[in-house]
Design brief:
The protein is α/β, with parallel strands linked by helices and about 120 residues long. It is built from 5 helices and 5 strands, in the order H-E-H-E-E-H-E-H-E-H.
Length: about 120
């Protein structure tokens, strides 16, 4: 059995706090941000499983996992990990989305962006 060292919860929380502080400074009106890339997901959640991290200002961030949900639970101490079959699952719970959502843009394929916007529309 391979033992994996988990990123401590305090470190994950500190990383999210720094992100939120930076967003508050650079985009004071921000309400939602979404992370898709595996490297950034690992940085914020401690696992590289396929999914999206939905960060809401003033609320608990939610890591929606599309593939390897069980593995995400094993690898990560992130406090809120939920399974998703499609973005529709996240949309059902994310009822208070604003019309402006900040996305990382370096690595998001157009098809992923279109599927995301279909269920979580924004301008």
């Amino acid at each position: 059995m391979t033992t994996t060292k988990q990123v401590p919860l305090l470190e994950l929380n500190n990383r999210l706090d720094r992100f939120r502080t930076l967003m508050d400074v650079k985009n004071p009106d921000w309400q939602f941000a979404v992370i898709f890339s595996k490297i950034n997901l690992f940085y914020f959640t401690g696992t590289m499983q396929e999914g999206m991290l939905l960060i809401q200002k003033g609320e608990e961030a939610v890591f929606w996992v599309r593939r390897s949900y069980e593995r995400a639970l094993e690898e990560s101490l992130f406090p809120c990990i939920k399974p998703m079959n499609s973005f529709k699952d996240a949309a059902i719970e994310a009822t208070s989305l604003s019309d402006k959502i900040y996305l990382e843009t370096e690595v998001v394929p157009l098809a992923l962006y279109q599927r995301f916007q279909k269920h979580l529309p924004f301008s």
